[in-house]
């Protein structure tokens, strides 16, 4: 569904990505792992048209979308949960969700579906986005992305700054989303939690892919975590 080939991106004269390759198939959960500053968010921005790549291809269902505007990428079925959540602070929970709703034939995500996934959002549906806890804002950011009825959900720093119990709740919800058949590309630092439900992992170091493999392979390669993921 999504294939990234030879992706190179930069901010001005500062090159960040040096030929990133990754792919996500329908219904698959893939992680993008690496220490801070290695190019994970830059990869996401490049995929979504928030940063124009210098080179490479970003194929969605075989069509090259590299450098295309963000709204066209979204229309092709990609939904983003951005780093920092970025909920609309002056809108209520329900208004945040309705603002991004994209229906149509076969659409399965609507208010009722999101509220079933996140009952707490239903309880807080009349509260403003700036009246929520960090965990509730992350639930809202995920729900907002789902309301676009994407075929691939991309989460940048899925549980950053959240308490352990809230992180577990987010992981449980991502497993439920996977069970619904959604493809997921997730960035996070909690490698052990990701390995419990992700299908494959892509590790990057200084803008280059240095390792890729299944969860079973990652568990059997502690040197990968020691060398590329631990601070």
Automatic annotation (TrEMBL):
One of its GO terms (biological process) is L-amino acid transport. Pfam families: ABC_tran. Keywords: Amino-acid transport, ATP-binding, Nucleotide-binding, Transport. The keyword S-adenosyl-L-methionine does not apply. SUPFAM superfamilies: P-loop containing nucleoside triphosphate hydrolases. The keyword Nucleotide-binding applies. PANTHER family: ABC TRANSPORTER ATP-BINDING PROTEIN (PTHR43820:SF2), HIGH-AFFINITY BRANCHED-CHAIN AMINO ACID TRANSPORT ATP-BINDING PROTEIN LIVF (PTHR43820). This is ABC transporter ATP-binding protein.
């Amino acid at each position: 569904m999504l294939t990234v080939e030879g992706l190179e991106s930069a901010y001005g004269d500062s090159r960040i990505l040096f030929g990133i390759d990754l792919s996500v198939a329908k219904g698959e959960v893939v992680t993008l792992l690496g220490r801070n500053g290695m190019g994970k968010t830059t990869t996401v921005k490049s995929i979504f048209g928030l940063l124009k790549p210098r080179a490479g291809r970003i194929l969605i269902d075989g069509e090259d979308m590299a450098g295309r505007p963000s709204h066209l990428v979204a229309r092709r079925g990609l939904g983003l949960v951005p780093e920092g959540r970025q909920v609309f602070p002056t809108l209520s929970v329900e208004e945040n969700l309705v603002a991004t709703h994209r229906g149509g034939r076969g659409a399965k995500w609507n208010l009722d579906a999101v509220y079933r996934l996140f009952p707490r959002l239903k309880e807080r549906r009349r509260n403003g986005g700036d009246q929520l806890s960090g965990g509730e804002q992350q639930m809202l950011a995920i729900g907002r992305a789902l309301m676009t009825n994407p075929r691939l959900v991309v989460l940048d720093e899925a549980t950053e700054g959240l308490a352990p119990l809230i992180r577990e709740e987010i992981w449980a919800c991502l497993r439920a989303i996977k069970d619904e058949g959604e493809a997921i590309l997730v960035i996070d630092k909690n490698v052990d939690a990701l390995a419990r439900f992700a299908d494959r992992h892509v590790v990057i170091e200084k803008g280059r892919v240095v390792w890729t493999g299944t969860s079973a392979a990652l568990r059997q390669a502690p040197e990968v975590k020691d060398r590329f993921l631990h601070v």
